[in-house]
Structures are given as C-alpha cells and as structure tokens.
Amino acid sequence: MRILFAASEAYPLIKTGGLADVAAALPVALAARGIDARLIMPAYPQVFDTAKDVTYTATLGEALGGHLVRLFAARMPTTGLPLYLVDCPALYARAGGPYTDDNGADWPDNHLRFGVLSHAAAVIAAGSAGVPWRADILHANDWQTGLAPAYLRFAGAPNTRSVFTIHNMRYQGLFPESVLAELELPRIAFSMEGMEFHGQLSMLKAGLAFADRITTVSPTYAEEIKLAEFGYGMEGLLYARRRDLTGVLNGVDYAAWSPQTDTLISAPYSASDLAGKARCKAMLQSELGLATDATAPLLAMVTRLTEQKGIDLVVGALPRLLANGAQVAILGAGEAEWERTLTSLPFAPGRVATRIGYSELLAHRFIAGADLFLMPSRFEPCGLTQMYAMRYGTLPIVRRTGGLADTVDEVRILANGTVTGTGFLFDAPEPDALAEAAARGMDLFADKPSWRLAQRAAMQQDFSWARAAEDFAWIYKVLAPHGEAGDDKMRGEAA
Ligand code: ADP
Ligand code: GLC
After folding, report:
1. For FRET with 445, which of 237, 287, 398, 485 sits at 20 to 30 Å CA-CA?
2. Which of 11, 19, 304 to mutate to test the pocket of ligand 2 (most atoms within 8 A of CB)?
C-alpha cells in the first residue's frame, strides 16, 4: 500500500500547530505497519535547510499560471520519513510564516501557494508526474491541501483514491470566484455540490466534496461538525456524507514527548520517580519570576492565541484562580490583541507569568513544570497538548468538547480511596465554570496521596500513534481500488 500524505507543515521542518506534529508522526506510524507512506509539502526555505538527503527528482513543469515547479526528494531529519518537497521559489521562498507574512496578514497568493501544492500532490499520487512512484491513496489534510482531491477527481485517476482529514473546520481557505481560472479546475467544480461556498471558492469544501473518504481527528468532533454550531455552514454537506466520515483520534509521538527522555526539560522523571518533576517546577518558577513555592499549584497554558482556545476564559478566571492560591503561566503566540492583553495583565509578577512567542523549548518546560494544564477551548478538533500534559503528570483542566472530551476523564475519589480519572472537565464556556473545575484540581493537588494516584493514572495513558495507524490502514485498505469493499460492513460503520 502506497500513501501520499499531503500537508502544509510538519515538525521539525516548519510548525504553527498540531497539524505539524500529526504530519510528522502519522506517516511514520503507518510505515511501521509496512505501508509505504511519503509526505509531500512545500519547500519553504527552512524546510530546505532542515531536511536531510535533499535530491532533485523531477520538473513538474509550469503549473497554474506559469509557475515553474520542481520536485525534490528528501528525508525527515530524525525519523528518515521519505519526503517530496514542492519547490517553487516564486511562491514559497520568502520570509514569514507558511500562511501569513510577519504582520499576520494572509499571503495574497495563498490560492496559488496551496493550489500548486495540491496539484503536485494529485499528479504525483496519480503517477502522471514523471516520478517513478505513485500512490494508492492520496491523504490530504485541511484546507491547504483541500484542492488535491478535486484535482485527482477531475484528472480521472483510476488507480488512486483520496482521503481528506479535517483538523479544523474553522479555517476554510476562502477565495473569490475569480481565482478559479488560475487554479485550472473545470467550471463544474465550482458548484453547490462542489467547492462553491456562498459565492466564494472554499478549499476546505473542495476536500469535503471531492474526497472519497473524510476523517476528522476525534470521534466527538466527527459528531459535532454535523451540527450548525461547529460546522460553519458545512454541517449539511457533512451530514449528507456521514457514511464516509469517521473520527480517528490523533496520537502522541512519545519519542518527542516523554519526561524520561525529554532533553529540553530541566530534569528527567517518570511515574515511579517524580523527583525530577519537582525540579522542573522549581526551575520553571524561577525562570518565569514566579515565587519558588512547591506548595503553590502551578497552572500552565501553551497555546495559539485565538478565540478557539478560550484564552478569554482564563483571563476572566484569573482573579478566582489567584484567590485560590494558584500560580498561572501562559505561553502563547497569535492574534496581536491577545498578545497585548497578556503582556499587560494587572497581576503580581510572582503569581502570573506570560511569555509571548512560539518556543518549542518553553512548551516542553511549561508542560513538565506545571501541576495543572489549562485548555478551556471553545471547540477542539482533537488537541494534542492535553495528551502531552497527561504524559508529564500535569493534569489537564479542559472544556468538554471535541477531542478533549474523548481524552480526559474527570478525577473521582472512590469510597475505598481508589482514584479514577485523569483531569478536570467543565461545560459552560464561562470563566466561573473554568474556575470551578480548576478549584477541583487544586483541591486534589492539596491531597497528596490522591494527587499522586491521579498523576500516575494520567502518565500511564497510552495515546500512541499505533492505534490511529491501525484505523487508517483499515480505511485505506477498504478504499484502495483493489481493496475489499465488502469488509466495510464488518466494521459496523455508523449509518
Ligand atoms: P492546535 O493545533 O489547535 O494549535 P494542538 O494541541 O493540536 O492545537 O497542537 C498544538 C501544538 O503546537 C503542540 O505541539 C503545542 O506544543 C504547540 N504550541 C502551541 N502554541 C505554542 C507556543 N506558543 N510555543 C510553542 N509551541 C506551541
Ligand atoms: C488542529 C486542531 C487541533 C488538532 C490539530 C491536529 O490545529 O485545532 O485540535 O489537535 O489540528 O490534528
């Protein structure tokens, strides 16, 4: 089985969020099952700098409006995962982020940047690019590669099927109808059943409409997006395609996220020896200018600063959290207004610390050094950081939505002293509801024997990628042109 996994970011080459972690780890977990999985992504400058064994492979010719596109083969630095890098300097060789310039404004030619990526993915997967490899399945991810299933569909590739994974419905890749001609897709693609969305072209909708199978990153989110509250107008399409839509929970790359082996944290530790965690906390407190107090519960948040993540709930709950004796540390990057708000919070520096920016090092140190992890998301397709936090014995406080609901169980102390659960959940998207869940967390923190039991339970959770890879291997097998369609029913697909 040959899988071409298409994504716009992958750790450690380039990362803005969880998609990068998924693109780096899922193909490797597929390869461990004997699947020939390769990742295709844009050759941004930092990607060329970081990838290994970069070799020129083919010229894909002049794609979309005369942009000369070349293909390089390469490998991921740590895992050796085979990569295809789509090189088009006119589109990708510039300073700034993968989607926006340094001021946070979308690149004006994003339709071409991701049109070219999607087009390259489709022609390589279909075997029509002059590359001596083709894919049975083209697996596209989020709006940036949403056009790939459309190109594949209209190219009429009989031996290649497509899977489209939704990591976030919120980002839709909307462009004016006028870009259609530049994208070299037939007029018929721009219909209500296709990628037209209220008069605009939606790359997300292209993926949803033209992929043979749709997945999203948790079972609960797969249900939520069929409702208006989470579907952003695409709930009808998702409901209509419900038999093709499955939720496959993301995994954790424990090679990168384990306190025993993590070289970025101040001291290693494990469930059976938590001494290192106490050192991580003390170091983090002193690094952040917080009072070095082992008895104060330290609540941390590591996040993109955007409405999704519920940062407003944390800011609103701060007075109550502090009144209960908490220390709060926030690492965030994103919307300028939130960055400003967080740098000017009116609280004592010994109690609240904020760091603005994107730092892999600090992300690890916050997660390892904290006692409790804040993730009060308004919606959360899966969420990886709460799973990372659990492995580090940092109990998550989460809103009961999406993947958070699927991965965190409320801690309960049973009559016989047994402790079940791994974190603290709340429902109402309000500061008081967050503060109440946090208060339960802090109460448990004060009850050391029960706290240790819950911490160990959290650390022993196994969210490894092997399980998701098994689910995808099945999805691919059923879908592949020579797969056994009859097998589908044996899995009891939801009607
Ligand atoms: P999302 O993809 O919606 O941002 P996830 O929880 O799936 O949420 O993944 C977030 C990823 O990005 C994690 O690897 C997390 O450690 C990382 N991350 C988020 N914000 C920051 C930041 N400010 N600095 C460093 N890493 C961050
Ligand atoms: C998105 C979602 C997040 C998910 C990640 C990886 O960024 O917001 O919930 O974990 O993608 O799938």
Report:
1. 287
2. 19
